[in-house]
């Protein structure tokens, strides 16, 4: 397994933020997700995790092989992304 740098994690998180934000736009404007607003948020959180793992595997790593500091950074960034989406679409 490859050791990822802080910069590599930042690039992955920036990509994920754009990806999940675009997915949220599509989900709230076009898709019907069961569970209403909360179901859509759960879907987005799940997609974040799936896409994160896929990106890490593509770089020869995995969430299981990250240092705790990097895991915390990812968790915090995910929370910020989901909070921003929630603020934008909850009406």
Structural write-up:
The chain is mainly α. The chain has one domain. Helix content is 76%, strand content 0%. The protein has three helices and no strands. It has helices at 6-29, 36-58, 68-89. The mean pLDDT is 92.
- Give the radius of gyration: 14 Å
Number of helices: 3
The proportion of residues in beta strands is under 5%
Biggest β-sheet, characterized? none
Question: Gap between N and C termini, in Å?
Answer: 44 Å
Q: Helix fraction?
A: over 70%
Strand tally is 0
| Helix-strand topology string | HHH
How much is the average pLDDT? 92
User: How many domains make up the 3D coordinates?
Assistant: 1
The low-confidence runs, each spanning 5 or more residues with pLDDT under 50, are none
**Outline:** elongated
Task: Give me the oligomer status.
Answer: single chain
Structural class: mainly alpha
Please give a handful of descriptors for the protein shown.
91 residues, mainly alpha, 76% helix, elongated
């Amino acid at each position: 397994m490859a050791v990822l740098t802080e910069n590599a994690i930042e690039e992955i998180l920036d990509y994920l933020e754009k990806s999940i934000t675009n997915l949220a736009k599509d989900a709230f404007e076009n898709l019907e997700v069961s569970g209403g607003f909360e179901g859509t948020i759960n879907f987005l959180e799940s997609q974040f995790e799936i896409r994160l793992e896929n990106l890490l595997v593509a770089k020869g790593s995995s969430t299981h092989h990250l240092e705790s500091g990097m895991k915390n950074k990812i968790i915090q960034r995910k929370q910020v992304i989901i909070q921003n989406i929630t603020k934008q679409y909850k009406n």
